[in-house]
Amino acid sequence: MLTFVTGNKNKFKEVSKILEGKIEIENQDIDAPEVQGSIEDVARAKCEYAARIVNGPTITEDTALCFNALNGLPGVYIKWFVKGIGLDGLNKLLVAFEDKSADAICTFAYTEGPNKPVHILQGVCSGKIVNPRGPPTFGWDSVFEPDEQQSDQPKTFAEMDPSEKNQISHRAKALKKLQDFLLK
Ligand SMILES: O=c1[nH]c(=O)c2ncn([C@@H]3O[C@H](COP(=O)(O)OP(=O)(O)OP(=O)(O)O)[C@@H](O)[C@H]3O)c2[nH]1
Ligand SMILES: [Mg+2]
Asked: Where does ITP bind (predicted)?
């Protein structure tokens, strides 16, 4: 059994749906400390910490939202930006810039257990920051409009059916790589 350590129920729901029984996972809610540093540094430290508690095969996931006009910030600190300034605040951060583009980056970290190597698998979904549209169910979904769209009427992640988001999202792309890695 593979343990996905996350305190975020939405993440676990999406990952379970995308994997659809291809890989069995269980959830453990451990509040792993998140260090400062690069996306990879944060992902690696979180996974190493979680694996010590799980004491077996462990995955963790870290999501960054990187504004191009701000050279990649807020990045891995997006959670604290949303908490601190809200979705409206994210839009205000970009008022002075014409460039509203952003990359949603999902980073899975996998290890067989404590003191084993940590493997990093990443997926990127490019898009832009817009005024909130759609239900505020998951983080910043309502202000992120991915470039890849299925119709002429662009939708934010929040306006998409879960199945639509799960085909194009940063998480789906990273998970595809994780699946290929684990099944090979
Ligand atoms: O609209 C969204 N669509 C997504 O697809 C998505 N994925 C993550 N997030 C949010 O971005 C921050 C990442 O921080 P994060 O990676 O540390 O997650 P977390 O602390 O919630 O869980 P975890 O660290 O226990 O796994 C948190 O605020 C998450 O709610 C998303 N918001
Ligand atoms: Mg976290």
From this structure: 6-11, 46, 62-63, 138-141, 165, 170-171
**How far is Cα 111 from Cα 47, in angstroms, rounded to an integer?**
7
Q: How many residues does the chain have?
A: 184
User: Is the distance from CB of 55 to CB of 114 less than 8 angstroms?
Assistant: yes
In this structure, what token pair is assigned to residue 113? 């257990």
25-28 and 74-75: which strand pairing? unpaired
Q: How would you class 162 by CB atoms within 10 Å of its CB: exposed for 0-12, middle for 13-18, buried for 19 or more?
A: middle
Provide ipTM, 2 decimals: 0.98
Residue ranges of domains in the chain, CATH in brackets: 2-183 (3.90.950.10)
| Distance in angstroms (rounded) separating the CA atoms of residues 126 and 111 | 28
Of 6, 30, 60, 63, best ligand 1 pocket probe by most atoms within 8 Å of the beta carbon? 63
- Which residues does the annotation place in the binding site for ITP? 6-11, 46, 62-63, 138-141, 165, 170-171
In this predicted structure, the answer to whether residue 184 has a pLDDT above a threshold of 90 is no
63-117 tens-digit pLDDT: 999 999 999 999 999 999 999 999 999 999 999 999 999 999 999 999 999 999 9
What H or E segment, with its residue span, contains residue 19? helix 9-19
